[in-house]
Amino acid sequence: MTAFLRWPVRESLFIALTCLLLSACSIFRDGYPHHTIAPSLAGPATPASDSKTMYLELIRQMQQQGAYYASLAHIDAFRLRFGNPPELQRLQADALRETGQTEAASKAYQSLLHGNQAAAAWHGLGLIAATGKQYDLAEQDLQQAVQLDPINVAFLSDLGYARLSAGRIEEAREPLAKAAELEPANVKVISNLALWVLLQGDDAQADAIMQRANLPQATRDAIQKLAVQLRPTAATRSVTDAPTASVKQATPHSALPQTASIPGMLLDRGTTPASSEVRP
């Protein structure tokens, strides 16, 4: 019977079956509910352009599920059928970065710095720099991303974390506070904000933020461990930035503004974090 199917029908079956595979994976990833899809022998009711849109969305969902190698294969297939739009190039760069192919990913991002994917490309370059512990470079790249897309919560949160990692504790406050107010239920944002409060020396307030966000104990332990690792960097940066010893004594660490710098919505009411993996 397959021999008599027209190509649009085979394409429709392909998309439906692939979505089935995604649903099966989502049970493990706490993503989409499991559905049973019965493919139809009728041709697709939507135009070919919509099939292109659906396929691109399929690739996005694969990456959200963490199937980056599979997404690379489908990116190649998409390119053969529909061409090579800028978003596909960016998705490929993301997949290359996530699979450890940083040199190829960096080249791909560099090629996108002057188009409609420029903000995401700068963000990708910043993440590559951060992975290599080049936090000053990461901060510069992520700042470029934020300038191009000022309300992107992921960009703001990652910029704040890069500044924390570079020992720029006070400078991390603004992007982290913006991210927290824009998306107060985002687990990654709350985790980075709690980390900032810990590095300010206010363990009690950090614990209160994590409790209100209902962060699991494993996540809290990871944030505490990360704070211990970053404190020497923060202390070194503080000593380097202080003009004189007398100025340092006049503004002890415990006197730095803490509670007033935290978005009130995280202090006055609880939050319901999204069910996503925390990667501070």
Q: Topology, pairings included?
A:
Layout: H1 7-29, H2 48-64, H3 68-82, H4 86-98, H5 102-110, H6 118-131, H7 135-148, H8 153-165, H9 169-182, H10 187-199, H11 203-212, H12 217-241, H13 245-250, H14 264-268
Helix pairs in contact: 1-2, 2-3, 3-4, 4-5, 4-6, 5-6, 6-7, 6-8, 7-8, 8-9, 8-10, 9-10, 10-11, 10-12
Instruction: Characterize the largest beta sheet: strand count, sense, and whether it forms a barrel.
Output: none
Q: What gyration radius follows from the Cα positions, in whole Å?
A: 23 Å
Compute the separation of the termini in Å.
Answer: 52 Å
Q: What is the averaged pLDDT score?
A: 75
Q: How many helical stretches?
A: 14
- Topology as a string of helices (H) and strands (E): HHHHHHHHHHHHHH
Helical fraction equals: 55-70%
Q: Residue ranges: pLDDT <50 for 5 or more in a row?
A: 1-10, 12-47, 242-280
Number of E-state strands: 0
Globally, the shape reads: elongated
Oligomer status: single chain
